[in-house]
Amino acid sequence: MLFSCVCIHTYILKIIPEMSCFYFKGKSKSKQKPESAPELEGQDRPRTSGKSERPSKSLGSLPSTPKSIPDLYKEKEHTLRVFSYEELREATNGFNRLLKIGEGGFGSVYKGTVRPVNGKGQPLVVAIKKLKSKSLQGHKEWMSEIQFLGAVNHPNLVNLLGYCSDETEHGLQLLLVYEYMAKRSLDDHLFSRGLPPIPWKTRLEIILGAAQGLAHLHEGMEIKVIFRDFKSSNVLLDNNFNAKLSDFGMVREGPVGDHTHVTTRIIGTFGYAAPEYVKTGHLTIHSDIWTFGIVLYEIITGRRAVERSRPVNEQKLLDWVKGFPVDSQRFTIIVDPKLRGQYSLTSVRKVARLAEMCLIKNHKERPTMGQIISVLKDAIADCNGASSSGSKSRGSSREVKQAVR
């Protein structure tokens, strides 16, 4: 059976009760499980909880209910292109392994070329994600990406061009088609030996773009959206090193009304999850701020959040950097040696202080993405005219604290 553009909406409505990546407004808060939702490994049961102690607003002052992600998708689903399986198989030369550019837990990503929508002009280079046919969790993430990226548009979020949902002799084939990001990911440029190191200022410009993408999720939509899987490998780069967030299979709608968090089964990448999320399953936009702080330390040090190949006391990035306080003379020891001293020490220290504020255990004291963006812009400005780590003074921690509070 071929899922056409006409019936994809019906298909989405059928599967929505089984989707756990979003909190749907108007649903009962009861813990009773819907009959249509099978028990799946890794399936989380979202609950909006934790009412704040602020007094309730009067009925007359309540704003209109914001639209949910599925609501926004229904309004814009016609903008996504529906591809056939044969079309995408041809685009990748039969999913040739030489065209494989990435691989994850739920499938592989291939570079391919497709015809323009009107059939005229040069073929369009795209990235095609092919999900494993028997991955139920991957099936849910496929739907989550369609709903989310089909509903939003921002220069720092990767552009979803279309999808495929075809029944073949080998089973249901689920694919997603994205714009092609020629410079791969921030992870590749920080940690791959096959690519030249990127300068400090470029790192800041990339992480600023990522921050602007997260700010749109947290503060720029009708509802707050929690990314939940922010990491350097999910920051993709175009030809000009402009950053775009990718991999939205685990996004969640944030708490609504007087609620302070949503409760969900813990998923994500080891070494990045916020401590309060790991301990309680309570998820807020502040959980993204914690992971952002870890990535800030990654661009400073050139080390991953967790590296098992290192000595035991250096395997966890956050534990290792604690031995080199920001204002100490030993701080420069943790700065990525691949930078070869070509950075503003004022700028690097400012970013390290910002990272520390993102990593405050009390999530309510962490900065917002808007405040983070302001500090990153200041750090970029500090780079102008700086040629080496020894050419700048320490800078003031007070100015950073003032900027993020």
From TrEMBL:
- What does the record give as EC number? 2.7.11.1
Q: How does it sit in the membrane?
A: Single-pass membrane protein
Q: Record-annotated residues binding ATP?
A: K130
In Pfam terms, one family for this protein is PK_Tyr_Ser-Thr
Q: Which UniProt keywords apply?
A: ATP-binding, Cell membrane, Kinase, Membrane, Nucleotide-binding, Phosphoprotein, Serine/threonine-protein kinase, Transferase, Transmembrane, Transmembrane helix
- Biased composition regions of type Basic and acidic residues, renumbered to the chain: 32-56, 396-405
Q: Under which name does UniProt file this protein?
A: non-specific serine/threonine protein kinase
- Species this protein is from: Trapa incisa
